[in-house]
Prior knowledge:
The protein is mainly alpha-helical. It has four domains: 2-79; 86-125 and 158-182 and 199-362, no CATH class; 393-447 and 459-608, no CATH class; 622-713, no CATH class. The protein is built from 28 helices and nine strands. It has a five-stranded mixed sheet, sandwiched between helices. Helix 21 packs antiparallel against helix 22. The protein is globular.
Amino acid sequence: GLIPSSPYTPNYAVSIRTMEVYCSTHLRCPHLAIEPFVKSICDISGVPYRSTLRKNFSACYDVYLKLRDESEKKILQALGRVGLWRRKNVCLACTYELNGEEKLQFKILVTMDGNDSLKQVLRRCLDPSYQFDDGDGDEDSTPPASSSQGTQLEDPRNVGEELYLPASTVNRYTKLDDKDLRTSLEDDGNPCAERWKNMSTEKTEKMWGMYDETGIFLCLCRHGFAVAVADMVKSGELSKYPLAIVEALLDAFGEDIGAGYDIGCRFSTPLRNSPLGHRAEDSRFHCLVGSFHGHAHNRLCQLLHLATYVLGLGLEDLEGCERFFAKSNTLASCIRYASTFHRRQKIEQYIKHVDKLETPHQLGKFLVDNYKQALGLIAQESALREQIARRGISNPKDVFHAWLKEEHDYLTGLSKEPLEETLQMEYYQRLINLKARKYVNETSTFIQYDPSQPKSRNGSKAVIARRIAQENYDKAVGLVHESEHLLGVEQTWSPTSQPFLEAAEMVRRRRYQRCLDELERLVVQRIFELTRMNLSKTGYKLRKHIAQALSTRSQAIRAALERYNAAARAFKPPRRVLTWDQVVNYAFLSDFDLLRDTRCDIRDRLWAQPINRALMDEWFKIERAHEEIKRLNIEIRRVVTHIRDEKGFLIAAEKAAGTSDPTLAFHIRLYREERTRFSSVHLQRFSELAKTPGFSGSIKPGVSIDPTLRGEGCQAMPSDEYSMEVDEPDPSTLASKDFDDVEDEGGEEEEEDLDARLHVLQL
Length: 763
C-alpha cells in the first residue's frame, strides 16, 4: 500500500490512500498544489517542512498516476476500447445512435476555442558570453531573450494521444499561417475579415520570449465532454490549431458536423483554402459562431452565422469552452512554472476528471433544463402569432426569411461601390493624375556636372529624380490611353469640355455617396446591436461584451463622420454636415434623417421597423426551440439506451474475466461503477420530465445502430432481452429493476441469468 520515491533503496514512501486524497482534492480544487498539501501533512504530523518532501512526494505522485493510467489501459484493452474509441464515443448523447432515429441537420455540435491562461514559463539562464552595458545611461539594461538559453531538462515522458493532439499533427498546417493567407482573407468577401485579429501573431510576439506553451486550444461537444486538445506553442491562436481539431473531428465523426468558434466566420476562409477544404465541404462541415461572441460581430456577419438564424442549431449557444475555461483557469497557478510533462499531465488529468465526474453528473440536468426552456418558448407561440397577425403578416416563416435576405442584400450593397459610369469617372481621375505629373524635356533640363568630382551626389540625385519623373509621366499617359481605348474617346477631354465637367460632378457625388454609405452602414449596425443591449434577458457579461464592440465601432463612426463632413462641404451646393452628438444619439432608424440622402431609404421597409424586428427575432427563437425539442428527444433516448447497454456489457465482461483473471474482473467492476455512477440520477430526472405537459419524447430504450461502439469484439444485444414496458413512468421502478446494481439477495442468480442470455465473445 506504499509508493516509494525511487525504485531502489528509497528513503521516502507515500501511502496510496494519501495519494488518492490529494488527487481527488486537487482535481476538485486545482488551486491546491503539491507544496501546500505536503505542508499541511507536516503540520498534522508535527514535523518541519522541507523542500525534499515536496520533491519526493511529486516523484511518488508521478508513479501513482502512471499506475492508474496503466491499469485503465489494460481495462480498455480487455474491453476492446482502444484507438479512436474514446473520441468516437466521447459523449453518449451525441454519438450513441439508435435505429429509427430522425436525421438531424447537424449530426454532432461542438465548440472550440483557445485559452491563454494555462501558460508555462520557459526556464532560462543568462548566456555567459553576454556582455552588460557598463554605461551610466538611464536606458533599460534588461538583457534580450536572445542572450539567454533554456535550462529545462528534456523529459521523454508523454501523456499519450488519447486526448492530446500530437505536435506533428498540428504542425502540418504551420505553413497555412503565412502572411499571404492572412492577406487573402481581405479579398474573400468575408464581412469579418478585417474585424477579428486573434489569429494574428503580432499580439503574442512579446510573450514568446517568456513562455514556451502559451495556452491550449480545446474542443468540446455541446454537452461539455472534451473531444480533443492541443498546446499552443510560442504563438497565439493560429489557424493551424483549429485546422488540426477539424481533422480530428472529420476522422471521428465524418459528416454533418457543426463547429462553433468565436471567429468561425473568419476561420471558414483558411479552412476552405487548406488541404482539408474539399473534405470538409464534401462532409458538410459547418463553421458557426457562438451566441456570446456573435452579438459583437457586425450585422452582416450575424445574418450569416448568428445562432438565432442558423437552421437546425436549436437553442445551443456554442459557448461551452468559455464555461470550461472559467473553471480550468484555476489550474494556472500550479502549472505556470511546471515542466512540459507535468503541465500536460495536470491538464489531461483535470480534463479527464471533468469528463468522468462533473460533466456526466450534469448531463441529465442539461438535457432536462434545455427541454423545459424550449417548452417555455414554445408556450409563447400562440401569443406571438396573434401579434404577428395584427401586423398584417400572414405567412411569418416565409416573410421573416425574406426579410433576412433583403437586409443581407441591403447591407451588402452598402459595402460595394456602384458600377455605373465607373469608366468615365476613372478616365477623369487619370486625366487629373496626368496633369499632376511633370513632363521632362531632355533639351531643357540641365544638370550641373563637375569634372573634378565624377561621382557628385548632386548630379546623381538629379539624374534619379529626372528618371523617376519621366517614368511616372509615361505611366500616367499609358493609363489615359487605356481609358480612351475602353471608352472610345477620339479626342482627349479638356478641362473646359462638357464630358470633363460632368465626370467631375460624378466623382464628387460618388465620393460623397461612398462616405455617406459607410457612415450609414456603421450607424445601422450600431442601432441593430443596441437592440440586443436593451433586451431584458441579456446577461451582464454579454452586455459588457457588446458594449466593448460598440465602443470600437464608435471610433469607426467618428472617423467616417469626419470623412462625410469633408465630402459634404465639397459638394455643390454643400450638403448638411453632422455633429458627433447627433449621430451617437440615434436609437431608431426613424431618427436617422440622413438616410433620406442615400440611394435607398429603408425607414419605411418592414424589416427595418423595431417592432417587426423584435417579432422576427422571437419567431426564430421559437423555431430554434422546436429544433431543440427534436434533438433532445433523440438525445434522451440515447442516454437511456446507453445506460442499459453499458451496464449489461460491463457485467458480462466482468463475469467473463472473473474465471481467468480475477484482478482484471475486479478493475472492470470498478470501471463499471464509475461509468454507471450517475445512471439513477439521470433516470430520475428523465422520469420527472416525462410527466411534464408537452413532453413528446420517449424514455424507453432503443437499439444501438452500431454495437461495435461499445467495444471491439462485442456482439449486438437483442432489444427484447432488455425491454422496458413503461406505460406511466415511475421513478422508483426505473431506478430499480432494470438499472440498479444487482447486489442484494438473489443478485447472483439474476446476473447468471443475464450472462446466459447475452451473446458476448470471450475477451
